[in-house]
Amino acid sequence: MSGIVEGECTLYNLTAEGKLVPLITKRNSLMVTWGFAAAKSLGMGNPAYAISQVYIEYANVAAPLDVVSTPSFTVYEGRTYYTTLTPPRDYLRVPLHGEPTLDIATGYESYFTAGVDGNQLLFLSQTAGSAGENGLPFSNALNSKVYGVALVSSPDIDDASQDIIVSRAYYSAAEQQLKQVSGQIVVSWKLKFLPSA
Q: What's the whole-model pTM score?
């Protein structure tokens, strides 16, 4: 019997004053490589394969209102897509804000005890740094616009070549977000572990 992993990610603006302003929520696509990270972490008990990073994909557009065409992709693609991004596109590789929080997915409250166990994880991360992994600057002055995100397992934090893409999501023209003059873009990512129907 197989189960279902459902996910959705939400973008927020984190203002210079520390206020979180929700922007948009999107469903994600679970990648085939998720199976390897899950097998190593859950089945073989290796904590190094737990989800620990987020990729935040962006492009430097000519004008703030310009939109980024989102890529077509299949769930069979791996990390090579990110390493071959070229200007005006790049990605930030940013760590999670601590461990994910455990909660109960809506509709499953009678099966779990709040604060004790559950079937839903919430991961948090945010934009950071002034350049992407391939060297493209990330700044408001260059109209850096976030259009995609990925949830990532990093068995070796210091070696990005070992990263495993767990899931990806992209934002439409109206949903894409510019880097603000001050403050950051926060990504919250919810994964629900559900039984099969």
A: 0.93
